[in-house]
């Protein structure tokens, strides 16, 4: 049985914390709050929290020192910071103080939950990643250029801090194209390697999976939709985004 993720809300106003608690519990997370700042660092260090959400919108002079202390106690676990304004300098100070992500007020609670989910997913993928690649997991399937990253074990596609999940077929198909990037891979080869079949599924099944991958690429960034090129009558070619990006 999988343990529910524990989330700690630090210094959040009670009405905001109540909204976040409701949405987080819908995701299956357990939420705790602390507004006292008494013994909070020990709580962070030993509480086995998967993520800490820290509100520094009070603009107190020591807010970023507080952020640094929390991040030191968290070590490798993610810290999401809520700031008072959308000013770039404010967010940069937050990142310099160790925050893994920053969100400014006023914010959408749904966006906040999405950012929390992404941070938790990144942490989960990182924990699952082997120190050395598996025999059936080529090195280049884990890192494609500088812009796009495929995590095969977690079946996750990353661009910067944003990600989408892939189905098993989509992930295997994308990794096959990544292994032969900048070269056309025939539909026959894709059927053989992804579906382990010489005949069937039909080309339409291959095309449908490619279409879904393109949609997920566009969801990450509109300019990534064209990375998979169709070689008419032949197959597909994945262009290396490091090359495309120049």
TrEMBL record:
| Ranges of residues in domain Response regulatory | 6-120
Q: Which GO terms describe its cellular component?
A: cytosol; protein-DNA complex
Kindly indicate whether the keyword Phosphoprotein belongs to this entry: yes
Give GO BP annotations, semicolon-separated: regulation of DNA-templated transcription
Q: Which PANTHER family match?
A: REGULATOR OF RPOS (PTHR48111), TWO-COMPONENT RESPONSE REGULATOR ORR33 (PTHR48111:SF1)
Stored Pfam families = Response_reg (PF00072), Trans_reg_C (PF00486)
Source organism of this protein record: Paenibacillus sabuli
Q: What GO terms are given for molecular function?
A: phosphorelay response regulator activity; transcription cis-regulatory region binding
Q: From what superkingdom does this record's organism come?
A: Bacteria
Ranges for domain OmpR/PhoB-type come to 135-240
Report the residues modified as 4-aspartylphosphate: 55
Give the record's keywords alphabetically: DNA-binding, Phosphoprotein, Transcription, Transcription regulation, Two-component regulatory system
In Swiss-Prot or TrEMBL terms, this protein is called Response regulator transcription factor
User: What are the DNA-binding region positions?
Assistant: 135-240
